Amino acid sequence: MTRESRTPVLEVRDLRIYYETPKGDVHAVDGISFVLYQGETLGLVGESGCGKSTAAMGILQLITPPGRIVSGQVLMDGVDLLKLDERTLRQMRWSRLALVPQGAMNSLNPTMRVHQQIEDVIRQHQTKTKTFDRSQLKPRILELLSWVGLPERVYDMYPHELSGGMKQRVCIAMAVALHPGVIIADESTSALDVVVQRVVAQTLLRVKADLGVSMIMIGHDMGLMAQMVDRIVVMYAGRIVEIATVEHAFRNPAHPYSQVLIDSVPTISERKPLKITEGITHDPRNPPHGCIFQLRCPFVMERCRREAPQRREIRPGQEVACHLYEQQPDGSYRDVRDTA
Amino acid sequence: MGRIPRQYLLRRLRIFILTIWASATLIWIIPRLAPGDPISAMVGQMSQAGGYVEGSEEIIEGFRARFGLDQPLPIQYLRYLLNLITLDFGYSIASFPTPVSQIIGQALPWTFGLLVLAMTITFLLGNALGALMIWTHTPHLIKVLIPLGMVFTSIPSILSGLFLLYIFAFILNWFPVQGAYALGIIPGLNLPFILSVIQHGTLPALAVILVNFGYWALGMRGMMITVQGEDYVQLARAKGLNPLYVLYRYMIRNAILPQITAFAITLGTLVSGQVLVEYIFGYQGMGKIIYDAILARDFAVIQGASFIVICMTAGAVMVVDLTYPLVDPRISHGGE
């Protein structure tokens, strides 16, 4: 896909989400901006607690107290979702923006049969032009189930009668029931064993390709990400440090944090000690002045403590927020370590 | 789900009967562990009150033979069990020779009617309010008012009963002060009687509801907090479903499950649980006869009433066990 032909379907601008605590606000998501293009799969990665799930919930407007969206815009077809009233937002949910939730274990209502849970969302969103009566609903739901590779008997089952992988596939079937434009998959494959993970991931990809939807995939399985996504957004402590195509991100990650993250993917040929040995070190209520990664960065400079780096495109398809890359008079970027 | 397997039903019935047998044996043994026996105690009281009682020895012997206390213990025990099966609890000692079963038979329907209704209303009201305390769409005013209403929960039922009597019966004169129905009305299926029963039952029922609804509301509130954080509730919101539908189908439906179990146990014990309410309102139910029996040391009535309470608790628990798979599909009776 050439860069010119890409049309944005979802745009996040300077989104800030804070959690209120007695000792001050936790800056869970602190001014993130990115664009999701038509038909693309965007991976959102980062260690636990970096705010990736909070960001997804923010886009879906599912932040509940003590969390709150402080500022920002979430644009879909030019409409800011954060400014919609309750009613319009409800109509827009699922029909335009669907979620494949985190943790297959508890995402389905234990007291409802599988078909009832798919049925209610179809019924809720039926319009005058698109109505289903009972006789049409059942074949439609069976079609969805077979689409994600589930047998017909699942239709009448309760969630506790399904395995984790089957539940996750029910969730995928549910997500595509209304042909949404964007699907957010929040750690959809974690808590599953490796084989089932791949099956679920492949189901997700196939459904995505069939429907041509755009997808934001959140996770920390770098191996899976490498196979599934087009571009990767690397988050650290509520901020985006790098956005790169999957090739750039894995071959030559630019941000020091992306570098340790990629380096921590284990390989069979080489056993190496883990480079990431600690979590986010600063107090999330009081992030350090300047670069967010300065406390753990092996290349930290004087300048990093003074000013926060802006995200710039250092080469086509790779944006990074780091002072290590300096613009040259000819417009290209150069790693300052090369001369030092 | 669906049909109850026969094997399970039989096993459950066996446990039910065993429970009742064990507790029936206990209420038979406990009074006999005490020194002396009811008859000598009674005659002892008579002689205390009236000085020397003429022919007290003969009276004691006569009563002993009448109540079968002259037989050896195993025989007494067997007779006791046989009598229980035919619901024959013997004769009341205080109001001899009325059979205990007749006393209980007259009181039970009143307690049942009043308390089952009151407890059901309490349960529904308490759970609804508890759920509303958590729901994000509840109007602010209601969220403030519910905790205020809980004040009644910390007032003992005697006080709230007296308070209701004073306001509504004595000052406002809206409701009668005493009894289960007005004197001079013939009990039966006629309109004046039914109206009178409702009129007499309102205040006692209100006393029960006021005191107990907070208990259910707090329990429900706790469960709702847990359920609110579940992934499926968040997914339901992401699905853009109607908030009211999410509230009852996704939240309350799951939060209420443990409450149902607790409710069954409450239903079993309510017969003895509202003694004071019945006493204050002069309501001729089980609470009242238990109270009177304790005052009069009427062992036969106490024993009979205890037995009924035990049967009802065991029965309620059994019904919940048998029907629970209908409300929670994750529970099943095991394969057939």
Write up what this structure looks like:
The complex is a heterodimer of chains A (340) and B (336). Chain A is an alpha/beta fold. Chain A has helices spanning 52-59, 86-92, 114-124, 134-147, 164-175, 194-211, 222-228, 246-251, 256-263, 302-306, and strands at 8-21, 24-37, 41-45, 67-76, 79-80, 97-100, 182-186, 214-218, 231-236, 239-245, 312-315, 318-320, 325-327, 333-335. Chain A has one domain (8-338): Rossmann fold. Chain A has ten helices and 14 strands. In chain A, the strands form three sheets. In chain A, strands 6-7-8-3-9-10-12-11 form an eight-stranded mixed β-sheet, sandwiched between helices. A four-stranded antiparallel β-sheet of chain A has the order 2-1-4-5. Chain A has a two-stranded antiparallel ribbon with strand order 13-14. In chain A, a hairpin with a 2-residue loop joins strand 4 (67-76) and strand 5. In chain A, helix 4 (134-147) crosses helix 5 and helix 5 (164-175) runs parallel beside helix 6. The longest helix of chain A is centred in the middle third of the chain and has 18 residues, at 194-211. The model of chain A has no long low-confidence stretch (mean pLDDT 84). Chain B has a domain at 106-286: Orthogonal Bundle (MetI-like fold), CATH 1.10.3720.10. Chain B is built from 14 helices and no strands. Chain B has helices at 6-33, 38-50, 56-67, 73-85, 100-134, 140-149, 157-171, 191-228, 231-238, 243-255, 257-273, 275-280, 286-295, 299-327. At the A-B interface, helix 2 and helix 3 of A face helix 9 and helix 10 of B.
